[in-house]
Amino acid sequence: MKDSNEYIIKVIDLTRRFGSFTAVDKITFSVNKGEIFGFLGANGAGKTTAIRMLIGLLAPSSGIAEVAGYDVYKETEKIKKSIGYMSQKFSLYEDLTIQENIEFYGGIYGIPNSVLNEKADQLIDKLELHVSKKTLLSALPLGWKQKLAFSIAQIHEPKVIFLDEPTGGVDPITRRQFWEMIYEASNEGRTIFVTTHYMDEAEYCDRVSIMVSGKIEALDTPARMKEYYNCNTMNDVFVKLARPTN
Amino acid sequence: MIDIQIGEVSKSFGRVNALNNISFDVEHSKIFGIIGPDGAGKTTVFRLINTLYLPDQGKITVLGYDTVKDYKKIRVLLGYMPGRFSLYQDLSVEENLTFFASIFGTTIKKNYYLIEDIYSQIEPFKKRKAGALSGGMKQKLALSCALIHKPKILLLDEPTTGVDAVSRKEFWDMLKKLKAQGITIVVSTPYMDEAELCDKVALLQKGRVLNIDTPQNIVSGFSKKLMGIKATNKYALIKTLRAYDQCDTCFPFGEYVHYTDKRDKPDQIEILDYLATNGLNDATISNISPVIEDSFMELMVKKYER
């Protein structure tokens, strides 16, 4: 079960300014080990800036943040080794084979080719791909690519995986197979940090936060959030929060 | 009145069967939705209707004109918003709109009333380069450009992909207003929840039509009793339900698992007992109504896995 005292991401008053504009304004939250955490917000709400700070690509202006036990100011290289990343837009190289993609990503994290070779076979078995590892990625259906990309993002056994709109555009059955993979990873103790603006993806998360104009406006389980705002779907909650004039 | 008629149309690209014998009619002044994942053939349908592709087989008429013979007549009657933002990034907002107005032989002033609702929201930024706009603003500009020549039919290829929930809602509100003005709208989307906002939808998967009907009829055609099952450990819940000998389908669905049983009258107590003996003591079951996505999956399973 999830240990609520074991934080894998801990953020206190994290802030980032660009000139006179405050993109992220004193956000505070923590994510537990093994949790599936949804990080939501409209375009321009500050999601991307916040994530860039968490993955060590952008220095904060002020505040505290630790990811996998490492400080986002001083230990950015260690953070990068402890996290995995997958986005819908850029996942794997289409003109490389399955094996080459695995060697490339694994190689970046310093895993020797002999180990990666074995992992490639295991992955193909586990995902029931029924193709040779010499198959070009471009020859695979979108759903397979997504599942493969998720597995490759875990090849270095990261503590946290950042997923950016992981299931956009795939058919509803493949999409659910993908969420089952996410549940499996979470069950094994990996933390999943999902950013998306598709509210139906939010419904699958253990807890979600909603960012509006640089601040975290709400943070809770989807069920409690829907109850609190008296809405049937996370989409309705989101529209209510992100457009406060209505 | 039928504005668009697609009859037994097939289209291939090399060995890829993009569309396989599809037929449907689009009625005047209605919102017709083409719902399906990437690779379903949505964009190919649009390019056949707008005369950019020729069908390999079958026939398409738009406002009574044949898309092969009368393509020049059709093009001026359509407004087309492609899936990828394809306005001129290095022209300003106003320059883009002027350009589209002038190639159709009209002016912004003449048809301003038609785009006012939408365009007024981006007009304060009319000197800004289109490439520097936010996603929601680009979408509004693209819609304005597709409307400026007062088309009879609007073709919108995935207009809400990559757009946040608030902008998506605003966009659908705009479509309803355009429909009320007598414009026929064909719109595609990978988001099943948007199907409910259409008058009629075609569910498309791998170049085949799974079903065509009103969203209400599609949902009421769901053939099984649907249950929503919930437990703290979702992963264990799914694995355990799959192993149950009476399990028909079992899909994660947000906080719930959507479950159908092989029996006509499934015994909920028995299912809960089974889950409890397998360590899921906190499971709860409720009867729920299916949504479009449930129907889509049922149709996918029927068409491809049997």
How widely separated are the two ends of chain A? 40 Å
Q: Main β-sheet of chain A, in a few words? A: 6 strands, mixed
User: What is the CA-atom radius of gyration of chain A, in angstroms?
Assistant: 18 Å
Count of distinct strands of chain B? 14
- As a whole number of angstroms, the C-alpha radius of gyration of chain B is 23 Å
Describe this structure in words.
- The complex is a heterodimer of chains A (246) and B (306).
- In chain A, helix 3 packs across helix 4 (113-126) and helix 5 packs parallel to helix 6 (172-187).
- Chain A has 246 residues and is an alpha/beta fold.
- Chain A starts with 6 loop residues before the first strand and ends with a helix.
- Chain A contains nine helices and ten strands.
- In chain A, strand 7 (160-164), helix 6 and strand 8 (191-196) form a beta-alpha-beta unit.
- A six-stranded mixed beta sheet of chain A has the order 6-7-8-3-9-10. A four-stranded antiparallel beta sheet of chain A has the order 2-1-4-5, covered by helices on one side.
- Helix content of chain A is 35%, strand content 27%.
- The longest helix of chain B has 16 residues, at 165-180.
- Chain B has helices at 42-49, 71-75, 93-103, 112-122, 135-147, 165-180, 215-220, 234-242, 268-277, 292-304; strands at residues 2-13, 16-27, 31-35, 57-62, 65-66, 78-81, 153-156, 184-189, 200-205, 208-213, 227-230, 247-253, 256-261, 284-287.
- In chain B, helix 4 runs antiparallel to helix 5 (135-147).
- In chain B, strand 7, helix 6 (165-180) and strand 8 (184-189) form a beta-alpha-beta unit.
- In chain B, the strands form three sheets. Chain B has a six-stranded mixed beta sheet with strand order 6-7-8-3-9-10, with helices on both faces.
- With 306 residues, chain B is of the alpha/beta class.
- The interface between A and B is large, with 35 and 36 residues.
